[in-house]
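Record pair follows.
FIRST:
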Amino acid sequence: MQTIGTALKQYDGTAPGADTLRFWLATGVIVYHSFGMTGNVMPGVPDHAAAEFGKVILVPMFIALSGFLLAASATRTDLWRFVINRVLRIFPALIALTLVTAFVIGPVFTTLPLTEYFSDAAFWRYLLVAFSWISFKLPGVFIDLPASQVVNPSLWSIPVELQCYAAMLGMMLTGIIHRRVWVLIGLVAVLALSLSSVVMGGQNGVHFHISRFMTQFPYFMIGVVLYLYRDQVPRHIGLFWGCAGVTLLMLMDGRHSVVLPLAVTYCAIFLATAALAKPPGLPGGDYSTASTSTGESRSRWCCTRCRSRIPGGSMWPSLFRSRSPWRSPRGTSSRSRLSS
């Protein structure tokens, strides 16, 4: 019986389909956000399913894959290198994105005089995005679109990603990452908390941020556990289609439970450990949620120029590539390394 571990060993310890999976997830996010940006609806898809598709499918698959790959990195890398890699992965691209958005895209598309634009409190608030203090609006920008003045709603995922990094750092500091039974117990606790209306019912302030984090953290933890138990978890096409079917049914029905994170994460890891064909011209590299969003502002430019005819969306932190300490499979040069 093939396991996730044996699938990795076939490619010298790498996840051969991770880059391709991330590419298509990023493409899905673009299409998903295009509907909200233009005010259109997804044809033939119930409103509740369309509204939650990104939140319970696309984003969680990124987060689950991040947990799987980070677990591999954390068990092989020392603490300081792990921290340095995470900082270099997030902040250079995030700072660049913030400056380009605020000082180039904003001035080009704002309807305000430039003196008023640069003196507006929203402009200065947006600059804090470079330090992961998230703000979504620039004054007078994209005011003709349904989400007026919002330039990059996908930035909400950056704090969640950082919080997942912090959780992994805590597991490394305590040594729990090397005691997989304790990680499994932690996952059970996280799943139990995710069922609590008290924990998940936050609407404002700190409680809101906790609730938002807890909607994604179970996927991250399941990804970690699947890596730590990779030699015991079967990798079977029947399990994949069963999990895919459960995911679709729960999405269309609008009811979620602890089954959904388990099903979605298994699907993500199954695909990441498959030799998925890359789209023509797709370069090798790490297309992850941990770099920074770049396509949202560009797609909003398309919508501004062409209104609802051209879909656009949030390109996720997926267009910036980063190096990995893991080696490529023999005979290849562009496989996805098990790090995130």
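SECOND:
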Amino acid sequence: MKYRVLWFLYLVFLVVMVVVPLGTTILSDIYVFKLQLDHLVHVVVFAPLVVLWRLGFPRHPVWKIVGAGVILAVGLEGVQYLLPYRSGNVSDAVANIVGVGLSGSGLAFLNR
């Protein structure tokens, strides 16, 4: 039950981070190992979603969790695209999907 609460709170956190206006710090201008820091943040932020989902709902198959995570990752980036004070783009959506995919792959590997 506690993992379900954590998953729900994390989901609320993701939605709030999508709709809240950000300050003037632009992470896309900072590079780490030739990757934009913004993309690394997207990967790291979306990875726990799959793990918390699996812990909270252990009967859900990993492939369904990853599929729903991909839909959520793209959908939240689409919401950002529609908001006048945020900018959603394809590269951020891909980074979100990478985060979901990496954690999903890790779970699938551990469940073998």
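COMMENT: The chain has a mean pLDDT of 85.
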